[in-house]
Amino acid sequence: MSDDSPIVSEVDFDRDGRHAGFLRVPHSVHRSAYGWIPLPVISLRNGDGPVVLLMGGNHGDEFEGQVALSKLARNLDPSRLRGQVILLPMANYPAARAGLRTSPLDDGNLNRSFPGNPRGTPTSVIAHFIESELMRRADFLLDIHSGGSSMRYLPTLLMAGHPDPAQQERGLALVRALGFPRAVLYPESPRASYSSSAARRNDVVGITAEMAGGGGVDRDAMKLLDAALPRYLGACGVLADAPLAPKGETRYFHVNSASGYLFARDEGVFEPAAEPGDTVAAGDPAGWIHYPDVPLADPVTLRFDAGGCILSMRVPARVERGDCLYEVGVPADPGDVR
């Protein structure tokens, strides 16, 4: 491990077999002067080969990835591997333990904190270790998200376009292996602060999965994810006897940063007019914001700025100005996004 990070790993990532323990994140507070935060980590290794990093709990209120990676840690036999799988089921442990998107210790959003700082707040220290230690070992990253407690997502893959056609095709091959019905392609700067940006900086092929969310663990999303993970490991070259991808076709989308997101511009109670999976046109009603405290006031009618497929929708009815209500994707050609 690097001398830069204060994190101590209980797991030796160079040992073969199944090994589970904690990444000890130093945390000195009033109730525990010499304490540490226990970040769960599992290594499944069988000799040399590709290294795959799987993350869940990047946002603590997104649960499908936490459950799926816990199951995989128990059930995947290291003897079936050629290489290594490293699992972080609760990547931002303080947030995941609290069931919150961000850490209650520092309000840190892990997926806005890369490359981190080894002398920063707990979230920044975790981000630094993941990027500087784990991603430097890895060849592939799958970061499993969901809509969390504020949004509900159609199961969708997210992949940043790559200027190198060979790298672009490597990513698209993994998208096909995962077999999700939808994938969003987007341009990304390697200077950004997402886990996918950290992967790009370390020449790691990174993909993000958005599952269902809504504050729970969705049964259909879990079935899709549980079946997709062995296929993904097979496509990465670390699992030799992996099943093949289903014959269904993945539909590709792009989300316009200006018109693809619909935000509340008033405070009140949101009544939606459409659901994830619906196809809408620009100008179609998106819903209404009501004012129960002024019951005779007419609601505000919201309309979509762009047409396409609704990928995600806000869950809580109570909204404030600036809350995201919908995300709308428009069809894209995978060769168009770099």
Feature tags:
22% helix, 19 strands, OB fold (Dihydrolipoamide Acetyltransferase, E2P), 2 domains, alpha+beta, 15-stranded mixed sheet, Aminopeptidase, four-stranded antiparallel sheet, 338 residues
CATH class of the largest domain: Alpha Beta
Q: How many individual β-strands? A: 19
Any idea what the CATH architecture of the largest domain is? Answer: 3-Layer(aba) Sandwich
Q: How many structural domains in the coordinates?
A: 2
Give the overall shape. globular
Describe this structure in words.
The structure is a single chain. The chain is α+β, with helices and mostly antiparallel strands and 338 residues long. It has 2 domains: 8-253, Aminopeptidase, CATH 3.40.630.10; 255-331, OB fold (Dihydrolipoamide Acetyltransferase, E2P) (Beta Barrel). 22% of the residues lie in helices and 30% in strands. The chain is built from 6 helices and 19 strands. It has a 15-stranded mixed sheet that branches. A 4-stranded antiparallel sheet has the order 16-15-13-18, with no helix packed on it. The longest helix is centred in the last third of the chain and has 18 residues, at 219-236.
How do the strands and helices of this protein lay out in sequence?
Elements: E1 8-9, E2 17-26, E3 36-46, E4 51-55, H1 64-75, E5 83-88, H2 93-98, H3 122-137, E6 140-145, E7 151-153, E8 156-160, H4 165-178, E9 182-186, H5 195-201, E10 205-210, H6 219-236, E11 251-254, E12 261-263, E13 268-272, E14 279-280, E15 285-290, E16 300-303, E17 308-314, E18 318-319, E19 324-331
Parallel strand pairs: 4-5, 4-6, 6-10, 8-9, 9-11
Antiparallel strand pairs: 1-2, 2-3, 3-5, 7-17, 8-10, 11-19, 12-19, 13-15, 13-18, 14-17, 15-16, 17-19
Helix pairs in contact: 1-6, 4-6
